[in-house]
Amino acid sequence: MKNIAILLTAITLVSCNQGGDKNTQTDTKKPDLQTTDVKTSNVPADWKTYSHDNYSIQYPSTWEMKESDGTVSVFSIEAPMDTAKAIMGENIQLSVQDMRGQAIPLDKVADAAIGQFKDILTNFTLLSNKKLTDGTGDYQQVIFSGEQGSIVMIFEQWYRIINDKLYVLNLTGAKENWDKGGQKIGEQILGSFMVKK
Question: Angle at CA 176, nearest 5°, toward 50 and 113?
Fold first, then answer.
């Protein structure tokens, strides 16, 4: 359980660092970045698909896909910055952790993460914590807010355990953008995530 909490803490720290360099590459074992045009009907025609050996995710063509160094997250997908207000756009990251030999329910994974976030974020507020099901299976959805400087940030995380791996999708955005459609498009991206079983 401690390893999960440490992993999720690291995800948050990277997500909160909206102005930092998240594209540093020091590990030679990066995922195979394959970006193609989307050919499905459930997302807009101009969306792209990021495909890896055992999973894929779709995102708007105006967003930027960045490979990560593998120490915290596999990739990040970033919305364009609102230059008029100097507010970073939404950011989605995926982290994957091996769960072999650990029979930890999704709600306990979420509880461990929530405990860590309370210690990290200023004015932490838990907005939602519930188990949901979609075409990929069960997942735990946690939404919370906290402050980074003078900006109120919203975090939405989806936790899935598939094939003995914990997949954590983290959507982060400024509350100002969140309320103006950032959550809707972010959840559409999260909902496009597929794992080959």
Answer: 60
| Residue (of 115, 127, 129, 186) closest to 152 by Cα position | 127
Give the tens place of pLDDT for each residue, 70-83: 666 789 999 987 66
Q: Which amino acid is at 23?
A: N
Q: Express each pLDDT in 98-144 by its tens digit.
A: 888 888 888 899 999 999 999 889 999 999 999 999 888 899 999 99
Q: Is the dihedral angle over the CA atoms 187, 126, 6, 100 positive or is it negative? A: negative
* Assigned CATH class of 2-15+38-195: alpha beta
Helices of type H across the chain: 2-16, 106-120, 175-177, 183-191
> What are the boundaries of each domain within the chain?
2-15+38-195
The pair of structure tokens assigned to 112 is: 């461990």
Bridge partners (DSSP) listed for residue 92: 77, 171
For residue 71, which phi and psi values (nearest 5 degrees)?
-80, -30
Spatial separation of the C-alpha atoms in residues 9 and 11, rounded to whole Å: 5
